[in-house]
C-alpha cells in the first residue's frame, strides 16, 4: 500500500477492525519510511452492475451519482448525510441481492422514490420533478396532492416487490 504522504510502498498494519456497516475492513497503517499513519478500507469486489437507461444505453451503477441526486433533492433539508448514504447502501444491496447484471433505470428510480417519500416529502417531490420529468405545474400538482392525500406512514396499502423465479418481478399490494 503506497503511503499518501511520502509515496513509499512499505507500511505495516497497526489496527484492523470491521467498518461500522460490516461491509469492509478498516485498517490503520503506519508508513515504515516516514512514520505517518493512514487508514485504508478493504472491500469485496462485486461484479459490475449496469443500469439500462430509457434510450437503451448501459451505464455502470454509480453510488456517487445516486448520492449526488439525493443530495440535490434534499438540499437545505434537515437530512443527515449518513442517512442518505445508508439509503444508497440499502438500494445497492437490494439490487445486488437480485443477482442481476443489469437493471432498468426506472426500477432504480422507483426504489429511490419509495424510500425518499418515507424519509422526507419535500425531497421526494424535488426528486420526482426531475425523475418523472414534469412537463408542467399540473403534473407537479398531481404529485403534491397525492402526497398530501396519503402522507407516509398513513397509507392503507404498501407495495412490496418480490422476485419471481423467472427473474421478473411480482408486485403485491398488502393492506395494513
Write the layout of secondary structure elements.
Blueprint: E1 11-18, E2 24-31, E3 37-43, E4 50-52, E5 58-60, H1 63-73, H2 81-97, E6 102-104, H3 105-119, H4 121-131, H5 137-149, E7 157-163, E8 169-175
Parallel strand pairs: 4-6
Antiparallel strand pairs: 1-2, 2-3, 4-5, 7-8
| Mean pLDDT over all positions | 82
Q: In what range is the share of β-strand residues?
A: 25-35%
Helical/strand content category: alpha+beta
| Rg (CA only) | 21 Å
> What characterizes the major β-sheet?
3 strands, antiparallel
Overall form: elongated
- Residue share in helix: 25-40%
Walk across the major sheet and give the strand order. 1-2-3
Low-pLDDT runs of 5+ residues are 155-176
Distance between the termini: 53 Å
How many distinct helices? 5
Beta strand count: 8
Order of helices and strands: EEEEEHHEHHHEE
Number of domains: 2
Amino acid at each position: 500500500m503506497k503511503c499518501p504522504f511520502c509515496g513509499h510502498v512499505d507500511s505495516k498494519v497497526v489496527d484492523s477492525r470491521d467498518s461500522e456497516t460490516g461491509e469492509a475492513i478498516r485498517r490503520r497503517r503506519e508508513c515504515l519510511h516516514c512514520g505517518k499513519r493512514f487508514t485504508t478500507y478493504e472491500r469485496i469486489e462485486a461484479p459490475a452492475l449496469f443500469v439500462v437507461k430509457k434510450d437503451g444505453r448501459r451505464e455502470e451503477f454509480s453510488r456517487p451519482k445516486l448520492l449526488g441526486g439525493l443530495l440535490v433533492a434534499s438540499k437545505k433539508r434537515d437530512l443527515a448525510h449518513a442517512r442518505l448514504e445508508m439509503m444508497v447502501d440499502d438500494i445497492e444491496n437490494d439490487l445486488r441481492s437480485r443477482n442481476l447484471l443489469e437493471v432498468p433505470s426506472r426500477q432504480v428510480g422507483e426504489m429511490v422514490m419509495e424510500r425518499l417519500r418515507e424519509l422526507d416529502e419535500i425531497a421526494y417531490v424535488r426528486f420526482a420533478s426531475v425523475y418523472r420529468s414534469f412537463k408542467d405545474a399540473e403534473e407537479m400538482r398531481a404529485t403534491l396532492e397525492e402526497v398530501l392525500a396519503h402522507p407516509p406512514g398513513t397509507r392503507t396499502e404498501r407495495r412490496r416487490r418480490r422476485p419471481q423465479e423467472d427473474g421478473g418481478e411480482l408486485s403485491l399490494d398488502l393492506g395494513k
